[in-house]
Write a structure and sequence with these properties.
The complex is a heterodimer. By secondary structure, chain A is mainly alpha-helical. Helices cover about 75% and strands about 0% of the residues of chain A. Chain A has one domain: ABC transporter involved in vitamin B12 uptake, BtuC. In chain A, α3 packs across α9, α4 runs antiparallel to α5 and α12 crosses α13. Chain A starts with a helix and ends in a 5-residue tail after the last helix. By secondary structure, chain B is α/β, with parallel strands linked by helices. In chain B, the strands form three sheets. In chain B, strands 6-7-8-3-9-10 form a six-stranded mixed beta sheet, sandwiched between helices. Chain B starts with a strand and ends in an 8-residue tail after the last strand. Classes of the chains: A mainly alpha, B alpha/beta. The interface between A and B is medium-sized, with 26 and 35 residues.
Chain lengths: ~325, ~260
């Protein structure tokens, strides 16, 4: 009974947040106006703005936020490092490198997506190969991810140095993470894939618990390398998909799992759904702020998550005891 | 029934050889204590028995079949292992942590069956930690944390238990409590293989002693025959006298101050 009430409250709160997010933007619509627009002329520009731009964009932020956050939760467990996130092992730098190449070559949006997806998966593959030599969860593996990141960001800067200014600007916007560049015809694909992958990760929730308590124990409790691989690649795909659709949105994969763990505890059966929901709404809220704060301009969502997340994290760590 | 047979096993890390041609076998129902100086290869031997590492030569068999030929999940259902460094960075509750012991008994889609809850409740009762089952494992004392890892192992499998120094750094109450729990299990038919630094605990509880020195099996005998001042002096390179515990009638070892051999 108690949990049913909680779930109903959660659904109500989520609906209010989504409604608020639909109302906000370059032009603010009151609920009455909104209902009016949606019930009247389907060919009006306002109708088109809401149905073809705001709603898909909100759905995209929800999918990407949930994906990044679940990906971070998985990486923190399998790398046994509470400060790990998908970007730490090079997802973002690989994607950035791929996207920068596509943008400088003046390729189409689809190609930017494909290039950045391939870029991030290529880096993850290198980290995966390294993990056979250096143990998963060991400091050397994480450091080699960081080192790969340095090499790739230097490559990105090198590409910038020899490119024209407007291309560089476009690439920088992408690097900051920006939903205004996302193409919403990708939404069904992203939606389906993220739900499938998050569902797969959820099936392995008890594996994540056991993996997080250390290698020897995990081995003697029957964790196979196969299950670790399933989790590694699911998390990697979630992050790579997100990043290739809307650029490098920072902090979601690091902060949301942290806060969720504080709120609901470390048991992954509860943590994964919480992180997914938390990440989805955090990113939606950040994007809503980004497109309503400085009208007529848009602040890329990566900047909002960076500011909000960084500040929040700072207070969170300063207020907590266990990060000594 | 023969559980573990180790034939001529040699093992090490990289170029450093830790175990040298060790052979022995362990039968069902034994309470085997492994003793020996630091660095003599006890933990390595435990890792070999538990299947965490492979030897460079020689074989380890479990129930007549090479350990390496078992699936990880099968072995996890056959025996449980308590390693030296247990615990987690993550603040699981004691109950949730012990529930992880049930992991090998569940399929991918099963989650906490009635049987799991029963096993966990039994392990909690056996170790007497009901009062702390909702605490976070990161907030426990050393003794409580050790009891929780043992409860986790018991929930996993209480028929064959392998433990690497489960009572190191514990006060005598917690140390005796853990040894008593293992003793009771052994009386009920469980096989216990345990690494101990306290020779007197080994003498008091184990039915058989394996002594390791410099990676070689130096001693393998029943407790009464193994715990003599000659054996212990040679094993640890220090002067000892032995006596008999007036209550338990088990052998007792007293190291004599000032006589350790310095190299």
């Amino acid at each position: 009974m108690k949990s049913a009430v909680k779930i109903l409250c959660g659904i109500a709160a989520a609906s209010v947040l989504v409604a608020l997010s639909v109302m906000c933007g370059t032009r603010f619509y009151t609920p009455a106006e909104l209902l009016d627009i949606l019930s009247s002329d389907r060919s009006s520009p306002a109708f088109s703005v809401i149905v073809n731009l705001r709603v898909p964009r909100i759905l995209m932020t929800l999918a990407v936020g949930a994906s990044l956050s679940v990906s971070g939760t998985v990486f923190q467990a399998i790398l046994k490092n509470p400060l790990a996130d998908p970007y730490l092992i090079g997802v973002s730098s690989g994607a950035a490198c791929g996207a920068a190449i596509a943008i400088v070559l003046s390729l189409d949006y689809v190609w930017i997506m494909v290039f950045s997806f391939i870029g991030s998966l290529a880096v993850i593959f290198v980290v995966f190969l390294l993990s056979k030599r250096l143990k998963l969860g060991s400091t050397p593996l994480i450091l080699s991810g960081v080192a790969l990141g340095f090499i790739l960001s230097s490559t990105v800067l090198l590409i910038f140095a020899v490119s024209r200014a407007e291309k560089v600007h476009q690439a920088v916007m992408w690097l900051m993470g920006d939903f205004s560049i996302a193409r919403y015809d990708m939404l069904p694909l992203m939606g389906v894939l993220s739900i499938l992958l998050i569902g797969l990760v959820f099936c392995y929730r008890k594996h994540l618990d056991v993996i997080s308590i250390g290698e020897l124990y995990a081995h003697n409790l029957g964790i196979t390398p196969f299950s670790v691989r399933v989790l590694f690649w699911s998390a990697a795909f979630l992050a790579a998909l997100s990043v290739s659709l809307c650029g490098v949105v920072g902090f979601v994969g690091l902060i949301v799992p942290h806060v969720a763990r504080k709120a609901v505890g470390p048991l992954h059966a509860v943590l994964i759904p919480s992180a997914a929901i938390g990440g989805a709404f955090f990113l939606m809220a950040a994007d809503t702020l980004g497109r309503s704060l400085a009208v007529p301009y848009e602040i890329p969502v990566g900047i909002v998550t960076g500011f909000a997340g960084g500040l929040f994290f700072l207070f969170f760590i300063a207020g907590g005891r266990e990060y000594a | 029934m023969n559980l573990f047979s180790v034939h001529n096993i040699t093992a090490g890390y990289g170029k450093q050889q830790v175990l040298d041609a060790v052979s022995f076998s362990i039968n069902e129902g034994e309470f085997v204590g492994m003793i020996g100086p630091n660095g003599s290869g006890k933990s390595t031997l435990i890792k070999l028995l538990a299947g965490n590492m492979a030897g460079t030569s020689g074989t380890v068999e479990f129930k007549g079949k090479a350990l390496a030929r078992y699936k990880t999940g099968t072995l996890a259902r056959e025996f449980s292992v308590v390693h030296q460094f247990a615990g987690s960075l993550l603040p699981f509750t004691v109950y949730d942590f012990i529930m992880m012991g049930r992991f090998p008994h569940r399929s991918l889609l099963e989650y906490r069956t009635a049987e799991d809850r029963e096993s966990v409740a039994r392990a909690i009762d056996l170790t007497g930690i009901r009062s702390i089952q909702q605490r976070r494992i990161t907030e426990l004392s050393g003794g409580e944390a050790r009891l929780v890892t043992i409860a986790c192992a018991l929930a996993q499998n209480d028929r064959i238990i392998i433990l690497d120094e489960p009572v190191a750094n514990l006060d005598i109450k917690h140390a005796m409590l853990i040894m008593d729990i293992l003793h009771d299990l052994n009386r009920a038919g469980s096989t216990v293989i345990i690494v101990l630094h306290d020779i007197n605990l080994a003498a008091g509880y184990c039915s058989r002693i394996l002594g390791l020195k410099n990676g070689r099996l130096f001693l393998d005998d029943s407790t009464e025959r193994a715990i003599t001042y000659k054996n212990i002096e040679l094993l640890y390179d220090t002067l000892c006298i032995t006596g008999t515990d007036p209550v338990s009638k088990k052998p007792h070892v007293y190291p004599v101050p000032g006589y350790v051999v310095r190299k």
